[in-house]
Write a structure and sequence with these properties.
Elements lengths: L1 H10 L5 E5 L3 E6 L9 H18 L6 E11 L3 E5 L7 H16 L3 E13 L1 H9 L7 H12 L12 H43 L8 H8 L4 H26 L6 H20 L2 H17 L2 H6 L9 H28 L5 H21 L5 H12 L4 H7 L2 H10 L1 H9 L2 H29 L9 H18 L7 H25 L3 H29 L5 H26 L4 H38 L1
Antiparallel strand pairs: 1-2, 2-5, 3-4, 3-5
Length: 613
């Protein structure tokens, strides 16, 4: 086969080639006579002539192996492009990374090299469909450079254009466009189906009408004192969450997300089984244990969608999956307010409804499409720059995926947290989550300091949070801000407003003020968390979503545990002084990010002046 290639390239195309035979494949390289002072028109004619000759000859005896990679070498550097599953972007790569780079940087292209593995493929067909049958993906950016090449238009000075050849290419282009559209439609259908199922799961797992009246149920119905709840029951959730989160963020990527989602749904189901059938302090402590398990594995819900949809859809997928949670909460809290406000039933009815919803959520978690370990393994191999990936996949086993995952976990962590952009949003994630968990845990206790009559609108208040949060959440996908430049300022302003809400709540004895402050605080948190999650997922390149989200949440839990020990065990603060501490915490976060923004702003300003000078 290699001799045929050499003979064809040497005789028919007048291009000498070099071949190399390896253990699992071969490589073929040839030189293109581009020079730094060549004009664009001349480079176009050279490439056209060689590629046209290949396409016109159609050497049926030529059987190339499956293309996996090519490399363009310049005088100063090289550009390597992976071709996965016979990817059809070869033309874009040659043009955009070859001619464009040489033309704009005046670098001499020294070699173009193709690598192949053992799966026969006709080179002529590949060139016709890949090189001449498709516009470059970044056509807006490169069209004025490459429009003549991609349609193989003859040189304007040629009086005899090859119309037959052009018709052949146009036919191939139409066939390829049809195949591309069909493949895109199938991918979109799978993406939409997965997103809908995940949103249904998210909505039902958040459909828990018990939650707005959980404190009243435990305090009034079960007759557990406020002191016992605040010191012996509620803190257990934090420690359970913290203990479970370590294996959660280590294993979520390993078990490929779906088992972790099923575990979350099962834990929530057990929680409401205890609510329905349990009594006493011990039962409520077990509730907090399983509640901690469920919330710790919630990172799988947020990470799952990013391995099932393309990066171009990350912003929309993030907004819709988080909005689904808000839809579930709004429906549950509105129903709870209706039942309790109109005295249609008691708190036990809310527990039973919540239990039924958890069983439905468990069903949806089971029917979610699974993530195959081979897909994850392939991405790991790509990240390592392994050649002949398809050969590795044919003989690979699940233990190979585990091996490469744990072997590279320290490298993944280093790569993640040495990125300043990821580090910035991760710090905010941890700091904001820490105080958010404290506020949501003790808000009902703050409401409980007022008379029971004042607490009758707890349900509608909890329902208004997601009602206002849903549009705020969906609007985040419309924001086109340079987060690298303005992110610190946005986070600082958000934390400052949250400081005001919490301080206002700590000093007020009017239930309407407590309700408004709580709603405002939650809406700001929801919007900024959606932005943070999308920015982190988009920036992450090694697909370790569970690891990143899990570690950020783990740090938040560590901070919350320290804060809980300080305000509960050491200082023994009542609930109102606790909220003063929480507000000061948000003020500190706002100042940290504001100072960071000011420093970076003047640094960029000074750097731009130096460059301009």
């Amino acid at each position: 086969m290699l001799k045929n290639v050499e003979e064809f390239m040497r005789v028919e195309i007048q291009t000498p080639v070099k071949t190399y035979i390896g253990a699992t494949g071969c490589s073929i390289s040839f030189d293109l006579p581009y020079k730094a002072n060549d004009s664009y028109a001349k480079m176009r004619r050279i490439l056209n002539s060689k590629l046209a000759a290949i396409a016109e000859k159609k050497p049926e005896r030529m059987k190339f192996e499956k293309l996996t990679e090519f490399r363009i070498s310049y005088q100063e550097n090289e550009c390597t492009r992976k071709i996965i599953d016979n990817d059809r972007d070869l033309f874009e790569a040659i043009c955009c990374h070859g001619i464009y780079q040489a033309y704009k940087t005046s670098q001499l292209i020294t070699k173009i090299e193709f690598a192949f593995v053992s799966d026969e493929l006709n080179l002529a067909a590949l060139i016709e469909t890949s090189l001449f049958g498709a516009t470059p993906q970044n056509s807006n950016q490169y069209s004025w450079y490459f429009q003549p090449i991609h349609r193989l238009l003859p040189d304007p000075r040629d009086n005899k254009p090859n119309w037959e050849l052009r018709k052949t290419f146009e036919k191939l282009e139409a066939e390829k466009n049809k195949q591309t559209m069909e493949a895109a439609a199938r991918r979109m259908q799978a993406y939409v189906k997965t997103t809908i199922l995940l949103c249904l799961y998210g909505a039902f797992k958040e459909f828990r009408p018990t939650e707005p009246y959980m404190y009243e149920y435990e305090h009034v119905t079960l007759n557990i004192s406020e002191h016992t709840l605040n010191n012996q029951v509620f803190p257990i959730w934090t420690y359970s969450y913290l203990a479970t989160l370590i294996p959660a963020f280590l294993l979520t990527d390993v078990v490929l997300y779906k088992p972790a989602i099923i575990f979350e749904a099962a834990s929530y189901t057990i929680v409401w089984l205890f609510f329905v059938f349990g009594r006493g302090v011990l039962s409520m402590q077990l509730v907090e244990v399983f509640y901690g398990w469920a919330t710790a594995t919630e990172i799988a819900y947020f990470a799952y969608i990013y391995v099932k949809v393309p990066k171009s859809e990350f912003k929309a997928a993030t907004a819709w999956t988080r909005a689904a949670l808000l839809v579930g909460r709004f429906s549950a809290y509105a129903l709870a307010q209706l039942i309790i406000g109109l005295k249609l039933s008691d708190y036990m009815c809310l527990n039973i409804i919540s239990l039924v919803a958890m069983f439905i959520a468990l069903f949806f978690s089971i029917i979610l499409p699974k993530v195959t370990w081979k897909d994850a393994y392939q991405k790991k191999l790509e990240a390592e720059g392994v050649s002949n990936i398809q050969d590795h996949l044919k003989v690979a086993k699940y233990k190979d995926y585990l091996s490469i995952y744990f072997r590279n976990i320290h490298r993944d962590l280093y790569t993640i947290y040495t990125d300043p952009f990821i580090l910035k949003w991760s710090i905010w994630w941890a700091l904001a989550n820490c105080i958010f968990l404290q506020v949501t845990n003790y808000t009902q206790t703050l409401w409980g300091t007022l008379s029971e009559e004042d607490n009758r609108f707890n349900g509608i208040t909890e329902a208004l949070v997601p009602l206002f949060g849903i549009p705020a959440d969906l609007l985040t996908q419309k924001i086109t801000l340079n987060w690298s430049r303005w992110g610190e300022l946005v986070l600082s302003i958000g934390s400052l407003v949250q400081f005001g809400f919490l301080l206002w709540m700590s000093q007020s004895h009017q239930i309407i003020v407590l309700y408004i402050g709580y709603i405002g605080y939650r809406i700001i948190y929801q919007a900024t968390m959606t932005i943070a999650q999308c920015n982190l997922a988009t920036r992450l390149h090694n697909d370790s979503y569970g690891l990143l989200f899990g570690i950020n949440t783990f740090i938040a839990l560590c901070l919350q545990s320290v804060l809980t020990i300080f305000v509960i065990n050491v200082a023994s603060l009542s609930v109102r002084p606790q909220f003063v501490v929480y507000s000061i915490y948000h003020l500190a976060v706002a100042l940290i990010f504001l100072i960071t923004f000011i420093i970076l702003f003047f640094y960029r300003l000074r750097r731009n002046r130096i460059i301009a000078a």
